[in-house]
From TrEMBL:
Superkingdom to which the source organism belongs: Bacteria
Name listed for the protein in its UniProt record: PcfJ-like protein
Xref: InterPro entries: PcfJ
Species per Swiss-Prot/TrEMBL record: [Clostridium] nexile
Length: 718
């Protein structure tokens, strides 16, 4: 449809009859409002429709009654329809814009709206769409928009189906060329794809049974239910099952791969989930079934196009191309058995430069898709696979290592031919290779036992870089073995502790060149000591900062000690901290804020309140309760670990009452009355907490206002 021709059809202005009709609707609406009869809508008709036809094109204009009354003669939208060519186009005259969206996307939904048009326009529309609506009524006219919506929706679905058809036809064309399964596929699945096999026997005839792997009767066995053994015929590991005690066995799915020639220079990797069922009714003859889940087309350069069997956009299940061709770069998670009889011929062609044939010889399970995908991105891995470096290949795939693409393998690995033979001999991985590279660079020999130990525990030169300047590989080997024997910890854990210990020792300031430091006898104990020492250093640094801010704090603590540390009984005692470090350690030990919040140190320096420690007599060095007290001995707040207060505090309350009386007595004897001034200071801080709406963020009183908690504590103590 040409846009210039569409605009000449003549549906861009409202007719005089339409304007006259809108005024008539307004009068009717005004009359109804005066009579209070109208409840739901202002107008009986909300939209007026104008229909024009030119050739095969039908133009439908939509005018709103309200807008026409306001003087707007242009339609809100004009929809041009071509039934023969099955096309449509919309025009917004007020914005002078063309839209390809459907009418419902442009105008939105209008529920229960009546449309108005002349009988001539209705007849024209009905004839164009061959509708069965013959009688002209407001309800029928409202179907104009529904018919347009249906017409546009049908066209959209036709376009969608055509796009999907083009997409699926390409897939179906590729899938139609997939070769058939080998003739011995079921037999191979039973013998090799299923890894768990059984010998079923009757209890009364224990000398003979049926082997599910070789599918024959065997004799000369001494079975016991659920025990493992060896089949005397196929020499495979089996499990004995009594036919009377076992009713059925249903195996979980096992993964297997089939590689087949595809086209001229292509190959297809087919992934199957194989299932096995054994039923007593069928005399435990295995029922083998399989379900193909994935197909990967491999090109000559090992690039891949993957397909999987799954749900399509229309809800059906079919073969479709995978958007994530490289979705599983996981060699271990998708390993499965590999059908062997097609590999030799493929190795003469497309797989000749892959290394897959050599890799799978020494492996029961492989993941060919991941390996060939890695071979596509890293061609050098072929040489490592052909050399027999199975462990190195698998680790390289896991780490997505980018190997340099040199002509010789020794140039790729950075070692010489002698060291390469040693790497192949011990089936070394990335860790073993790092030590061989170190041997070449330093020209210092490392024994095979040490290399195998490092390879076994996956210890590379990077893992011991923190100690390599102080110790040789031989010394590291002997030290790790000794620590492994003494502590019983795995080598990986010992290395972590050792690394952390030396890092802390450096911060503490110890001499890392001293063998006693970098090679300690009791590593765990020295590690714990370093942790404590590092905490003490942090405590000292924090204490120095607080001393600069509150220089008289420790002097105040010494002055109040005779008053507040004068009473003790058989169970409890109150101690006054003598140093800032004591308060910080108390806060860290009990995990509360007394050692971190400067407000407590500020109150002590101003003699507003003091911090004292409640201890048990039997454990004076162990933290019990931290208390904040007023100068008259009144306990403002108390808390043990994590700001909690338990029943053990109630047991100590009788002692604390005696202690408070003793404090007041000491104060009177010294003829000092600090209550007036100090309570005023404390009351001021309490008022500030109330004014700032400070909320407790943890502990027993979480969510409550600090002022309410302090007031309740003060009243309870009094």
């Amino acid at each position: 449809m040409r846009k210039t021709e569409l605009l000449e059809i003549g549906c861009l202005e409202a007719t005089k009859k339409m304007l006259k009709f809108s005024k008539k609707e307004e009068k009717k609406s005004r009359k109804q409002r005066l009579q209070k009869k109208m409840k739901m809508r202002k107008f009986e008709y909300e939209v007026s429709v104008k229909i024009c036809k030119k050739g095969e094109i039908l133009a439908v204009s939509f005018f709103r009654i309200k807008e026409m009354l306001a003087g707007q003669v242009q339609p809100e939208i004009v929809v041009f329809l071509n039934k023969k060519e099955r096309t449509y186009l919309s025009y917004l005259p007020r914005e002078a814009k063309w839209r390809t969206a459907t009418i419902i996307k442009i105008m939105g939904y209008f529920y229960g709206s009546f449309y108005h048009c002349t009988k001539r326009d209705w007849a024209l529309f009905r004839k164009y769409f061959d509708t069965e609506c013959s009688r002209w009524t407001p309800l029928k006219v409202s179907s104009i928009r529904s018919i347009i919506e249906e017409f546009q929706t049908d066209i959209l679905w036709d376009r969608i189906e055509e796009r999907r058809r083009q997409e699926t036809n390409e897939w179906d064309q590729v899938m139609s060329q997939i070769p058939v399964l080998p003739k011995d596929w079921e037999r191979w699945c039973r013998k090799s794809a299923i890894t768990q096999h059984y010998i079923f026997y009757k209890p009364e005839r224990k000398g003979e049974g049926y082997c599910s792997r070789c599918n024959t009767r065997v004799q000369g066995i001494l079975p016991k239910h659920n025990q493992y053994g060896i089949c005397p015929k196929c020499r495979q590991r089996i499990q004995y099952k009594s036919k009377k005690m076992q009713k059925r066995i249903i195996h979980k799915a096992e993964c297997t791969y089939l590689l087949q020639k595809f086209g001229t220079n292509q190959m297809v990797i087919r992934k199957f989930n194989v299932y096995a069922k054994f039923h007593q009714k069928r005399d435990f003859v295995p029922e083998i079934s399989w379900f193909e889940t994935r197909r990967v087309i491999v090109e000559k350069d090992f690039s891949q196009t993957a397909y999987y069997y799954g749900q399509y956009k229309d809800g059906s299940y079919r073969w479709r191309e995978s958007l994530y061709a490289e979705y599983h770069y996981d060699f271990e998670g998708n390993k499965g058995t590999l059908y062997q009889r097609t590999l030799f011929s493929l190795n003469q062609g497309i797989l000749k430069t892959s290394g897959l044939y050599e890799l799978q010889k020494n492996m029961k399970m492989v993941e060919p898709e991941t390996y060939l995908l890695y071979r596509y991105h890293c061609p050098a891995i072929e040489k490592a696979a052909k050399a027999g470096l199975k462990k190195f290949v698998i680790q390289s795939i896991h780490k997505k290592s980018r190997l340099p693409n040199h002509r010789k393998l020794i140039e790729i690995l950075g070692i010489n031919s002698c060291l390469l033979k040693q790497l192949v001999k011990m089936d070394g991985g990335i860790a073993g290779l790092s030590w061989l590279q170190k041997m070449k660079n330093t020209q210092k020999w490392i024994s095979e036992d040490i290399l195998r130990y490092f390879e076994k525990h996956n210890i590379s030169t990077i893992d011991v870089a923190f100690i390599e300047n102080q110790m040789s590989p031989q010394q590291i080997y002997h030290y790790l073995r000794r620590m492994e024997k003494e502590s019983g910890l795995p080598v990986e854990k010992i290395l972590t502790i050792w690394r952390d210990y030396l890092s802390m020792a450096k911060k503490i300031g110890e001499n890392l060149k001293d063998s006693i430091v970098y090679r300690p006898r009791e590593l765990e104990r020295r590690h714990d000591e370093a942790v404590i020492a590092l905490q003490e250093i942090d405590t000292k640094q924090r204490a120095e900062e607080l001393r600069e801010k509150f220089p008289n704090l420790e002097k105040v603590c010494r002055e109040i000690t005779p008053i507040y540390q004068s009473l003790k009984d058989e169970k409890y005692a109150v101690l006054v901290p003598q140093k800032i470090e004591d308060i910080i350690k108390e806060g860290k030990a009990l995990h509360h804020c007394v050692g971190t919040q400067e407000c407590y140190f500020d109150r002590i320096s101003r003699k507003t309140s003091y911090i004292v420690f409640l201890r048990r007599q039997e454990e004076l060095e162990k933290e019990f309760y931290t208390m904040e007290i007023e100068p008259d001995g009144n306990i403002v707040q108390k808390s043990k670990d994590y700001n909690r207060t338990g029943e053990d505090y109630e047991e100590a309350e009788p002692f604390l009452k005696k202690w408070k009386k003793n404090v007041l007595k000491k104060i009177r004897n010294q003829e000092k009355d600090p209550t007036k001034t100090q309570v005023t200071l404390w009351t001021a801080e309490l008022s500030a907490a109330y004014k700032d709406h400070v909320v407790m963020k943890g502990g027993k009183y979480q969510g409550q206002y600090l002022s309410d908690v302090l007031k309740a504590e003060q009243e309870a103590a009094a």
